Amino acid sequence: MRTPWWAAGSLLCLAIGLAGCSTVSPAPSQSAAPNPVPAADWDSFWKAFRIAAQNKNRAALRAVMPDQFDYSFGGGPQTPEAAFASWDHQEINGWDALIEATANGAVDYNPPPQWQLKGNVKIAPPEATAGDYTRWRAVFEQSPDGRWRFVSFLNGD
Question: What is the chain's percent helix, strand, coil content, to nearest 5?
């Protein structure tokens, strides 16, 4: 009996240990390749950002975060890597908080001078523009080169 062409291909794939045929992707938090992030197009940036946050894609998020990233009012280094480590703690639940805080979009925002942001700024969630807002908020700044950056994610006032 002749082996069908599709069965032969499957057997070959199995025979080489599935090395080149695997469709399993890396765990989201271990993804190495960042999503492409457009220079000045907010809608494309936002879409890529939300996908990266939902997948806990650290490489993609790191690509749009400055070296000085505000994530805590406490001590310790204010870096993206420290933020990721903090968000991983179950009691902080930062990844879910990031997904929730950005679920309803972001709005233009005029930050107070002490924030020292110079470019166009957006904040999520939209409710975070209220003076008495004290929950998680994500802040984005458009840098002089036109690229949007994720500059802080803080909980509290």
Answer: 35, 15, 50
Rounded to 5°, the CA angle 55-58-64 comes to: 110
Fold classification of 27-155 is Nuclear Transport Factor 2; Chain: A, (3.10.450)
Instruction: Tell me the per-residue pLDDT of 97-153, one tens digit each, with 9 for 90 and over.
Output: 999 999 999 999 999 988 889 889 999 999 999 989 999 999 999 998 899 999 999
- Domain spans of the chain, in order of start: 27-155
Q: What is the DSSP string of 78-112?
A: -SHHHHHHHHHSTTT-HHHHHHHHTTT--EE----
Q: Which residue is listed with tokens 């080149």?
A: 20
- pTM (2 d.p.): 0.75
